[in-house]
Design goal:
single chain; about 100 residues; mainly alpha; Chorismate Mutase Domain, subunit A; 3 helices; elongated
Length: about 100
C-alpha cells in the first residue's frame, strides 16, 4: 500500500524522482566526507597505538561502537542493519589504523 503523503501525480513524478535523487547524491557526498574524516581519526589512532605499542584490534571498543550505533538508529534502518554497515566501516578503519601503526 502506498503512503498517501508520498503520492504524486504521474505528471509530477519525474520531477519528484529527480529531486529525491539529487537529495540522495547530496547525502552520499556528506557521508563520503564524514567517512573519510573518520578514517583520518583512525589513522591518528593507529599512529598513537604504534608509538605506545597497543594492538590495533580493540574488541571492547568495537563492541561499544556497535552498541552505540544500534542505540542511535531511529530508523527506518533497523539497529541490526546499522550494525552490519558499521561492521564494514570498522573493518576499513582497522585496516588504515593497522597501516598507520606500522609506520610509527
Amino acid at each position: 500500500m502506498v503512503d498517501s503523503r508520498f503520492a504524486v501525480s504521474e505528471e509530477r513524478a519525474p520531477r519528484e524522482l529527480s529531486r529525491l535523487r539529487e537529495a540522495i547524491d547530496h547525502v552520499d557526498e556528506v557521508l563520503v566526507r564524514l567517512l573519510n574524516q573518520r578514517a583520518k581519526y583512525a589513522i591518528e589512532i593507529g599512529q598513537i597505538k604504534g608509538v605506545i605499542r597497543l594492538p590495533v584490534y580493540s574488541p571492547e571498543r568495537e563492541k561499544q561502537v556497535l552498541t552505540n550505533v544500534e542505540q542511535w538508529s531511529e530508523g527506518p534502518l533497523d539497529p541490526s542493519s546499522m550494525r552490519r554497515l558499521f561492521e564494514r566501516i570498522i573493518d576499513e578503519s582497522r585496516r588504515v589504523e593497522r597501516e598507520a601503526s606500522k609506520s610509527s
